[in-house]
Amino acid sequence: MKKLFILAFLLFATHSNVPAQLSKQEMRNDLEVFATTLPQKHLNLFAKLDKKDFEKKISTLNARIDSLDEESFFIELFQIIKAVGDEHTRLFPNQSNYQLPIVFSVFKEGCFVTESTRPELLYGKLTAINGISMKEILRRYKKIINDENPSYFNISLPRYLNNTFILKGLGITSTKDSVVCSFSDGKGDTIVTTLKPDPKAKRIKAPAYSQLEAFKNAGIYGQHYDAAHNSLYVYYHSCRNDKERPFGTFMQELFDTIARRSPQKLIIDLRYNGGGNSSILDPLIDSLQNNYLAREQSLYVLIGKQTFSSALLNAMSLKKKCHAILVGEPTAGTVNHYGETRTFKLPCSHATVTYSTKYFETWKGHDGALHPDKAIAASAEDFKRGHDTVLEYIYRL
């Protein structure tokens, strides 16, 4: 009896971190809270989706719950969120236990491994999962991720592509326990391997290709003067104020460098900035308006797929007020958008729903991403070789 008790305890301990499947009633409870709370809290949930269509989707899903498992239920919720058409209104299931020990990034050539527990997979191009081609996988993910803006889709895809909970919901795998992935190594060979969820695994990062990584441990914002090109590079990772080094202090240091070095070019990198508080950068923008750098061919702002929300607003302000030249890729965020998000949780699954409380119209009549003046797409080949082609382009000017 004692041995049986120990065995039972070990089995419970092994599986205790795996969430239990939601019951049909729990799904209905979550759906009811989702359907009533989201329209109440969102500033204007029905800006793009007709209220009757929203109610019909909810009713249809409720009628189908008996035939759905938990994964399929959440895929249906994702589709409703997509139909809302608000980039800040999103759904985050509480399913981190099903994260594979691998990270993907989308480049112009496809989807590549940029972090993994296995070095031989780094730089590998994902070609199939469980024998399903990437073309078909992308088609299925476009059911749940907004793809009107390709940058938004490409930056969102990796967040869901390495999770077996989502993969199972989309019918790409029949089990959450493992998947078989196929990779092209770029030399004509294919690597086929089985991956199992392991969210705590220590992953190896592929060598970086941009100055973001060079300064990644130096704080939210910082500067670097390049004497060879007489250029001053500023990185701004997040629209936040560093309490240990307030933005006002950094700004003073920056203008001290400008006065001392008289750089020919000022480069502000917003490529990896996902937003926050747009007003943090306002004092810098205001000061630059009267600076010699606020003229054509002197101020460059780097934007990309990860430039989102407040960072996008900052990029637009720099362009409008300081004559900045935008270089890089179209942004994930749209120019006019709902934002300033809040959250609520679904009671049974504990999934998080974000919703917008404010509308930002910064460019009347303009819809879609903010596009660069000079487009330079992120390349997997450049990534492998450690080339930052955006900065190299500016340095050559």
Give structural notes:
The chain has 13 helices and 16 strands. Among the domains are: 109 residues, PDZ domain (Pdz3 Domain), CATH 2.30.42.10; 151 residues, Alpha-Beta Complex (2-enoyl-CoA Hydratase, Chain A, domain 1). The protein has 397 residues and is α/β, with parallel strands linked by helices. Helix content is 35%, strand content 21%. The chain is globular. Strand 9 and strand 10 form a beta hairpin. Helix 3 packs antiparallel against helix 4 and helix 10 packs parallel to helix 11. The N terminus is likely disordered. A 6-stranded mixed beta sheet has the order 9-10-11-12-13-16, with helices on both faces. Strands 5-4-6-7 form a 4-stranded antiparallel beta sheet.
- Residue stretches low in confidence (pLDDT < 50, at least 5 long) are 1-16
Order of helices and strands: HHHHEEEEEHHHEEEHEEHEHEHEEEEHH
Reading off the top of the CATH hierarchy, the class of the domain at 211-333 and 369-396 is best stated as Alpha Beta
Give the % helix.
25-40%
**Annotated CATH topology of the domain at 211-333 and 369-396:** 2-enoyl-CoA Hydratase, Chain A, domain 1
What spatial form do the alpha-carbon principal axes imply?
globular
Number of strands: 16
The largest β sheet comes out as: 6 strands, mixed
Gap from first CA to last CA: 79 Å
User: Numbering strands along the chain, what is their spatial order in the largest sheet?
Assistant: 9-10-11-12-13-16
Question: If classified by CATH, what would the architecture of the domain at 211-333 and 369-396 be?
Answer: Alpha-Beta Complex
Task: State Rg.
Answer: 23 Å
Fraction of residues in β-strands? 15-25%
